[in-house]
Predict the structure.
Amino acid sequence: MLRRLIELEVHVEKILVRGDMNRSFKIKDPAILLNLEGNNVTPLPASSLKGLMRHLACIVARVTGLKEAYLGLFGQELRDRKCFETTDSQEKEGKLVFVNKGVNKNNITHVISPGIMINPVTRIIKENTLWFYQYFTHKRSNIIPIRYEIWAREELNSDEKRLLCYVLNLLTSREIGGRITAGLGRIVDVVIIPEKFCKVQ
């Protein structure tokens, strides 16, 4: 039975929109925002957070030997690059479910800025190289607080919780998103609710 483990408030610096170097970009309302409940939207879906955490968990599990904890949390998806070599041809579902609660669309703004290209040898501006990039930012600062929830299909054992907490503590300063998502940003802080979830008992 699904139960909510934690809520995360992930603070992301201004989020670059995919395709930001498109010179033919036309100024228009951004349609790449993923609409969530009510007024909440996000350019960084829950799959972006899951992918980042899965990548970090793979690294930690290889170093600490927490292979079973990794497979318990994230499962095994054959279409993904495997973290651990296995002869098992069956996909396995992980315990974690990621939910994006987003950010209120009234609190973010869409910005379009021009850019130029510099010749790396002469350090002179190249001809006909004007291009535009677009990004989202918070109306009152450069930091966008995006809310996510992590749910569990079943109870986590001690190693699974330990691995999850290792990963949560590694999220700050990481890039989230990428070429196949709507946006790309850098995490500057993560608030875990409840705060005591990763505290040593």
Q: What stands out?
A: The two ends are 25 Å apart (CA to CA). The chain has one domain: 3-18+30-105+141-198.
